[in-house]
């Protein structure tokens, strides 16, 4: 009876050692990937101008900003799987910001395109010869072609 706890303890040690031997290479690979990722992010942050970096950090949540500033200042250590989850969370924050910017731009482009084809009386832009250089050029070109065609018509009737 007294040897049963020793057997259980021995089995526990063997299982622990087996798990350690199995997962240690995977953890080392994850650590290497995490360090490579941080090095690339840090390099990109360093290559930014001060204005670009300021703009990059300006719209971030405080936690995400702190995360990227930690990478920039070389203040990161691999603590385990939680680091990947944290990285993923912050990258999702950046992706969300990019999606918002794209949606804002798309909405602006749609609004501008609608204004371009809407009459002025209904909220569109003032258009036509004399207001817009491309409209003026097109109008002048058409008048010139009409003048040439009318001259050709009178010549054909001669």
Automatic annotation (TrEMBL):
Transmembrane segments: 6-23
UniProt keyword list: Membrane, Transmembrane, Transmembrane helix
The protein's name in its UniProt record: Uncharacterized protein
Organism whose genome encodes this protein: Alkalibaculum bacchi
